[in-house]
Write a structure and sequence with these properties.
197 residues, 4-stranded antiparallel β-sheet, 3-stranded antiparallel β-sheet
């Protein structure tokens, strides 16, 4: 669901007909929708150079600064690999995008989440990524670790607040024409808290 929702929110239907997932990643925009979803999924990227030597890079290491990836000048992105989910696993997965208008909009804040839990509601795996609130899309490692072992159906106010604060540790938003740093921080805090409502 996280990847489907992110792809559906990207630009317009006309652009989506010709755009590629690889293009969204290689643009390395801090507000890349599909890229944010793939970071939450803990995907990996295979790049290949002109001598046909390939290497596998975890997607959380793929982006090094705004509009810059870890790829070298003689490399291209060959494929993206997302881990398969066991069909018996329950998932809580989606993409939240906040912008200043409903379509053709770069994210002001985005949050991608992919949480796996067992039949008792105990979280066994979690991927949370944030976009447009730091120089690169960030995987919120501490927030994900915090979720492991918790019951997804029993999040009280204190657990939500702690989770939100851990997500915010990875944000370093700036003020620009679309939103202030304060606004981005408040929105990220609120959507993080609302993940388990």
């Amino acid at each position: 669901p996280v990847l489907h929702q992110a792809a559906k929110s990207l630009a317009s239907s006309q652009i989506r007909q010709v755009a590629t997932v690889g293009g969204n990643l290689c643009t390395a925009s801090p507000s890349g929708d599909v890229a944010c979803a793939l970071v939450a999924l803990n995907a990996t990227c295979e790049v290949i150079n002109t001598e046909e030597i390939s290497r596998i890079i975890p997607i959380k290491e793929f982006f090094i600064s705004p509009r810059k990836t870890i790829m070298k000048n003689d490399e291209i992105l060959r494929r993206i690999i997302a881990p398969l989910i066991d069909k018996q696993t329950n998932i809580h997965s989606g993409f939240i995008k906040v912008g200043t208008r409903r379509s053709m909009e770069c994210s002001v804040v985005s949050l991608a989440y992919h949480i796996c839990y067992n039949s008792d509601g105990i979280i066994t795996n979690a991927g949370i990524a944030i976009g447009a609130v730091a120089p690169t899309i960030r995987f919120t490692e501490k927030a994900c670790s915090f979720l492991i072992g918790k019951n997804i159906h029993s999040f009280d106010k204190d657990l939500k607040a702690t989770f939100s604060e851990l997500v915010l540790e990875y944000a370093s938003p700036i003020s620009d024409l679309r939103a202030s740093a304060w606004y981005r921080t408040e929105v990220l805090k609120n959507i993080s808290k609302g993940l388990f409502d």
